[in-house]
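Schema walk-through. Below, the input block comes first and the output block second. Nothing else is stored per chain. Lengths vary across the set, and this one has 352 residues.
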Amino acid sequence: MQIDMHFYATYAVARLAGLSQESAQTVATAAQFVDDATDNNSEKNTNNEMLFAICTAHHLAQSAQISLTHEDVHRLVWVPFHFFPAGQGETLEEKLVCQTDSGLVNEMFTNHLGASNKSFYLHLLGIASHVYMDTFSHYGFAGLCSPINEVNGSSINLHVQSDDTHSYIFNKALKFWNKCEAEVMSLGGEMGSRGLGHGAVATYPDRPYLTWDFNYESADYTRSMHSGERDNQATFWQALVRLHAKISAAIPHLSDQQTAPQPLPEQAIKAILAFEGGKEERVEKWQQFIQEHLGDGLVEYQGDEWNKQKTEFDSLPTPEHIGDCYRFHQAASFHRWYVLKDLLPEHGIYVV
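--- output ---
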């Protein structure tokens, strides 16, 4: 999913679930920031205190470099944050395949809902929301370099209403694949056939309006070769319905911000999901929805401000340096440790 879902849709759902504008802003920004925190680095301030950041995503050049030289690093990022393992099958690779709304991802969310004593609780809810929502778009793929992710490119079928939209998303995918090849070649190596995540199908899983299908290269795993019809509109709607219920469950832990939950306006939201437009146009649809149905003003993603808190950490006095960026990385560390070192091993899945 992209910013239209991870920030704007998450904000709308959080508000409808009962969160205040300020709390919904924090949860939604944290949800989107998972895709934007791409650096492992640290900053110290004048008190010699440190903000140690962990990356929760890799941009394309990073992914190419890591795939060629240290591909196991992907396990620290894509497995816990983007392709949550369903734990099904016999081999490790089979267990790492993401599935929609799996028992394991629900166990993760329940654990995080119970961490209301943490100062980074809202940021943790945002991370959990991102991970949970991604299971409704990334299902069928695993967060590591593996033949299990290989797709027969000629088998991909795209179903949209507009021929212009079909051409647009196909050409976007072509540019994506060309850029991938260019990044790999610029590093002087070949990735061969070992795919990462849903790279083989570009951004098709992230487009809310798309219905599509494809064939995997191999049926040697615990699945059929054909993907089955993937109706993004239907799965994204289910993601929002279930996320609404989960965030509603957090309200008792935030009594000073509690408001009466409101049902999701199904017709209005489904109309946004069905809209065949680019990312910026889809964002505009959500902004309009937020203004008309929630009465909130123009809502903006605060990721740049959070990054600024990190780059200016050395000059920030105590306690101002303990801002949203610091709390996000607290939450990200908490989440990653819990998933990789606690939850998954309890289910016999040893990723790292």
